[in-house]
Amino acid sequence: MMYRDTFSSFHPTVNFLFFGLVFAFSMFIMHPVMLVISLTAALMYAVYLDGKRTLMFCLKFLLPMTLAAAIINPAFSHEGMTILRYLPSGNPLTLESIIYGISAAVMLGAVTLWFRCYTAVMTSDKFVYLFGKFIPSLSLVLSMTLRFVPKFMSQLEAVRDTQFCIGRDVSNGSIFRRIKNAVTIVSIMITWSLENAVETAESMKSRGYGLKGRTAFSIYRFDSRDKTALTWLIFCGVFLICGILAKGLKWRYFPSIKGTLTEPFTICFFIVYFFLCMTPIIIDRREDKIWRSLRSKI
Amino acid sequence: MKRIKIFPVFICIMFLLCGCDLKGGKNYQGTMEIPENGIVDVSIFKQIKDDSAVVTFKGNSNGCDYEWVIFGDDIPEPKTLNLAVEINEKQEERSSGLSFRSEDGFGFAPVLSVHLNSNWDCQNATVYDSGNKAVCGASVTGSENSIINFSVDNSVGEFIVRADNESENAPIIAETPTETKASPVSTETKNTKTDPYLTPVEPDTPNAVTGGGNRVISDGSATEQDKYKTDPVPEGRPMPVEPEDTQIDSSKTYTCTFSIECSTILNNLAELNPEKIDVLPADGIILPACEVQFYEGESVYDVLQRICKENNIHMEASWTPIYNSAYVEGINNLYEFDCGSLSGWMYRVNGWYPNYGCSRYQLTDGETVEWRYTCDLGNDVGGGYAVSGT
Q1: Which residues touch B30 (CB under 8 Å, ≥6 apart)?
Q2: Which of A22, A35, B299, B354 has an alpha carbon 20 to 30 Å from B93's alpha carbon atom?
Q3: Within an 8 Å CB–CB cutoff, is residue B335 touching chain A?
């Protein structure tokens, strides 16, 4: 079986736990240092997995989106003690709301990038393997939904190419002709997706999916390296949750910016979080190094 | 993988060595009882100062509860203090005698809140010393029984608090006309005159213009809401003026008295959003009463906005089309709902809380505007009627 990278070849539990932790911490901890760590690691891993395509995605989509989020926030939120100037509406423009906007944008970017990595690593078979036993119908629906967008896009491309070949693309003819062609393509796509969903569901049903006593075939093995990785992830999770409960990662933006930053206690959490986020990259790099050294020996 | 296993151990050791010692700004640390003899030891004040804590000291005298709100940051030099106060309330006279048992001054002026057993039915009081000289003003809050909040610089000896007689509380009916030729405001009066709720202004009176424009006074005969959902304005109170009908004439300037205060929060510290204790003034006064200038045609909101800008006080408001007025969400970073779900900002002009938005109250010369923070939908600042409409 071909995997995208070494981390993908780990047991699905390890993969899923890693992403679960990273999503939760990225979304719930608004500490700026934690956000920067998360963003950096997410960007590095996404580039490792996808290379140039990730960079293009960042430039075309992520950068404008984050910039917009950073600009829009101070236009609507006026709380904060440091007044920079006054907006035309008469409300103050505050430093705190700008910084909060940037932090929210960084969080948005980090979570988007982590989701990109997630779709590459957590393939639908892994997801169904993990949850097929407990919640069969939900895991099927989830995996179908998650798969839907990329599948729809590739099908759309195929249909458009076909229509283009017979001269019925949106780029042919007068405006009315083009609209008519576009409507036809949309209609084809809707019919296809409905039919596709029904077909998938029926085929799963005919194979007895979710029936009592049925086992799921899996090629996943939980070996010692998975054990080590799982221990490490659980340790990080517990450690960071303790940190949040002990208010070691406290940060507030309003009314003035204040939080823990240089306490040795807090720095411990930064280090642990950094290594947690970098786990897949460290594993991949190590494996690459071993592979290269083995090859050079041949 | 060996290295990864060593790492957690290393972190755990660091964790144990550093411990959990985090300090983060001011924090409210609850209430402490004042002992029988009133003496609170220096060690307690030192602790409060070191923690930048905010602590309420609670005591009782002759059936009246009293509270000192002490901000650790204000303590110049921790020392043993006697916080006991003897309170003699005279309900009929609406006054109360206070005698402080401490022998020398505190060196700082914490706010003393006295919970009376009666309702003084006023919003302001004055503190007099034994020589009957006014020392400072006090704000009166409280929903059922009055709470007097004030801070005296030198809290030694005897003091008397008396309720202020609010003469301006009486409805304003008589308006002294001054000479003004057809101003843009007078044309505006003609438009509003068609409104059936309004008292007709006698056409013969040559431009019945007072200090800040042609004010129309309610005769109390209206029974229905106007188109901006305002309940009938009580008799003798000014009718709302729509901001879009008004032109500001910057050639005519007048003065009014303006103040912003939030002493109700000091009585409800337990409910305050803990993040906001940093912006809470220790005496509850954001802007002490001061004379400010305004131009003809300006509303309470216009003046508030300018005053806040000039004094570098944060203020956020949002325009609410349904009430045709700006809604003040927060002043000095103290927002609505920051001190309980019934909290927010209210304004009071000449002793009356208008039942319409602050952009629709056009100011006239010499009026007194007070912005007060309520923690109980206006009931604790004597303005519940403006909210409930009764």
Answers
A1: B55, B56, B270
A2: B354
A3: yes
**Is a pLDDT exceeding 60 seen at residue B173?**
no
> With 70 as the cut, is the pLDDT of residue B193 above it?
no
The residues near A188 (Cβ < 8 Å, ≥ 6 apart) are A159
Inter-chain CB proximity A246 and B4 less than 8 Å: no
**Selection from B351, B361, B359 nearest residue B385 by Cα:** B351
Q: Side-chain half-sphere of A175: how many Cα atoms within 13 Å?
A: 0
Is B18 close to A272, i.e. CB distance below 8 A? no
Residues of A with a Cβ under 8 Å from any B Cβ are 78-81, 83, 86, 89-92, 94, 225, 228, 232, 235, 239, 246-248, 250, 252, 254-256, 258-260, 263-265, 268, 271-272, 275
Nearest to B282 by CA among B53, B21, B24, B29: B53
Is the model's pLDDT at B208 over the cut of 60? no
List CB contacts (< 8 A) between A225 and chain B: 1
Categorize the per-residue pLDDT at B263 as very low, low, confident or very high, splitting at 50, 70 and 90. very high
In order of A137, A140, A192, B294, the CA distances from A196 in angstroms are 17, 14, 6, 71
Q: Which residues of B touch A239 (CB under 8 A)?
A: 8, 11
Question: Taking 70 as the threshold, does the pLDDT of residue A48 lie above it?
Answer: yes
Angle at A170 between CA A167 and CA A171, to 5 degrees: 75
- pLDDT of amino acid B198: 38
What does the pLDDT look like over A273-294, one tens digit per residue?
999 999 999 999 999 999 999 9
Distance from CA of A7 to the nearest CA of B (A): 14
Q: Among B19, B25, B309, whose Cβ lies nearest the Cβ of A258? A: B25
Across the strands, what pairs with A86? A92
Q: What pLDDT is recorded for position B303?
A: 94
Nearest to A256 among B14, B278, B319 (CB): B278
Q: Where are the alpha helices (DSSP H) in B142-206?
A: 184-193
Residue in chain A closest to B18 (alpha carbons) equals A265
Measured CA to CA, the distance from residue A31 to residue A46 in angstroms comes to 22
Q: Does B200 touch chain A (CB under 8 A)?
A: no
Residue of A nearest to B10 (CA): A268
Q: 3-class secondary structure for A136-196?
A: HHHHHHHHHHHHHHHHHHHHHHHHHHHHHHCCCCCCCCCHHHHHHHHHHHHHHHHHHHHHH
- Model pTM above 0.90: no
Question: Token pair 């997995």 is at which residue?
Answer: A49
Nearest to A247 among B5, B22, B305 (CB): B22
- CA angle in degrees (0–180, nearest 5) for B312-B317-B322: 160
- Find the DSSP H helices in chain B: 2-18, 42-51, 184-193, 263-267, 300-310, 384-388
B8/A235 touch (CB, cutoff 8 Å), yes or no: yes
Q: Token digits for B281?
A: 């003034």
pLDDT of A231-279, one tens digit each?
999 999 999 998 888 888 889 998 889 888 888 888 989 999 999 999 9
Q: Are B314 and A80 a contacting pair at CB < 8 A? A: yes
* Per-residue pLDDT band at B180 (split at 50, 70, 90): very low
